[in-house]
């Protein structure tokens, strides 16, 4: 019998796009699905839309709960999921018709615990069309190894898809001991790396399998608030974990991500006319711990010097004056 795949979709006030998302899941080429729609206290008709899908398709299960944020909704879905595999989606995204089929085939072919596919952003109002997938798609599957870890171009290009909860499929066991934080705006930054830590093998497919709605009104584009600092807290947790493990390359990568998040917050705060000195504790942590970023062959002296210039000179001039 085919493996059961649980698809978990946190739903909140997405009546405009929810139908497109769920349609793309119920119409997957891979049919043995358990589709869990978690209505996270929606105040529009999203909950009723979920119920209609459940009435028309026995594979669809609906949870109605108080609003607790995306992470809390994902946890609620994980509690009732019974599939051997787990995949997730945001409530306004669209699956390629073969997404689950292709990811599951790649994971099984390579004996992987996690399979990750590529994505394409699409604009609000656009209707993405599925790209053709070659019958020999498994030949394109790349088992992740140290060569990827030391490839800055790969990491820079793939960083988003490696972090987000969607466009990947995971063995259920990868979630053992892993929970999404409730009310966090960056629940995936806290969590996805822990799934990789639980995995013995990860495979990547450079094939567009997921369509991410690039909505200018999404939480990252609306008026900024300090809850976004949570992303830096998540990277700090990762950095301290990897430093404790003595995994220097992971420390370098995580420190770079922390610094990128710092400047993303700084730029958004400037745009909103906020007091950027609120970032001072995050700069002080950076300055205090910059010594953990050592001069190595993978880092190089140019980047090593750049980090010190930013932490000791550039950043304090930006936030303290």
Report on this structure:
With 321 residues, the chain is an alpha/beta fold. It folds into two domains: 5-214, Spore Coat Polysaccharide Biosynthesis Protein SpsA, Chain A, CATH 3.90.550.10; 226-319, no CATH class. It is 44% helix and 17% strand. The chain has eleven helices and nine strands. Strands 1, 2, 3, 4, 5, 6, 7, 8 and 9 form a nine-stranded mixed β-sheet that branches. Strand 2 (33-40), helix 2 and strand 3 (60-65) form a beta-alpha-beta unit. Helix 7 (187-198) runs parallel beside helix 8 (230-245), helix 8 runs antiparallel to helix 9 and helix 10 (280-289) packs antiparallel against helix 11. It is globular, with a radius of gyration of 20 Å. The termini are far apart.
Question: In a nutshell, what does this entry contain?
Answer:
By secondary structure, this protein is an alpha/beta fold.
Topology:
Blueprint: E1 5-11, H1 18-26, E2 33-40, H2 46-56, E3 60-65, H3 70-80, E4 85-88, E5 94-95, H4 99-110, E6 114-123, E7 142-143, H5 146-149, H6 152-163, E8 168-171, H7 187-198, E9 202-214, H8 230-245, H9 248-271, H10 280-289, H11 301-319
Parallel strand pairs: 1-2, 1-4, 2-3, 6-9
Antiparallel strand pairs: 4-8, 5-9, 6-8, 7-9
Helix pairs in contact: 7-8, 8-9, 10-11
């Amino acid at each position: 019998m085919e493996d059961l795949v649980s698809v978990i979709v946190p739903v909140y006030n997405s009546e405009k796009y929810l139908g497109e998302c769920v349609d793309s899941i119920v119409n997957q080429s891979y049919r043995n699905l358990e589709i869990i729609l978690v209505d996270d206290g929606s105040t529009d008709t999203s909950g009723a839309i979920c119920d209609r899908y459940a009435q028309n398709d026995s594979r669809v299960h609906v949870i109605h709960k108080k609003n607790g944020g995306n992470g809390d909704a994902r946890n609620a879905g994980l509690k009732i999921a019974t599939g051997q595999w787990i995949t997730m989606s945001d409530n306004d995204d669209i699956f390629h018709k073969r997404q689950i089929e292709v990811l599951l085939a790649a994971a099984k072919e390579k004996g992987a615990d996690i399979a990750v596919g590529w994505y394409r952003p699409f604009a609000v109002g656009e209707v993405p069309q599925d790209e053709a997938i070659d019958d020999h798609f498994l030949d394109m599957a790349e088992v992740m190894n140290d060569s990827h870890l030391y490839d800055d171009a790969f990491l820079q290009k793939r960083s988003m898809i490696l972090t987000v909860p969607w466009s990947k499929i995971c063995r259920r066991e990868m979630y053992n001991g892993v929970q999404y934080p409730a009310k966090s705006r960056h629940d995936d930054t806290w969590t996805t790396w822990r799934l990789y830590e639980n995995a013995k093998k990860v495979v990547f497919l450079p094939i567009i399998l997921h369509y991410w709605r690039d909505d200018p009104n999404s939480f990252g584009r609306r008026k900024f608030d300090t809850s976004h600092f949570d992303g830096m807290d998540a990277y700090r947790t990762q950095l301290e974990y990897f430093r404790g493990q003595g995994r220097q390359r992971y420390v370098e990568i995580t420190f770079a991500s922390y610094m990128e998040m710092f400047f993303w917050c700084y730029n958004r705060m400037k745009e909103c006319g906020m007091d950027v000195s609120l970032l001072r504790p995050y700069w002080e942590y950076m300055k205090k711990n910059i010594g953990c970023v050592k001069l190595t062959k993978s880092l190089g002296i140019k980047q090593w010097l750049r980090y010190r210039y930013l932490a000791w000179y550039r950043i304090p001039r930006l936030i303290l004056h």
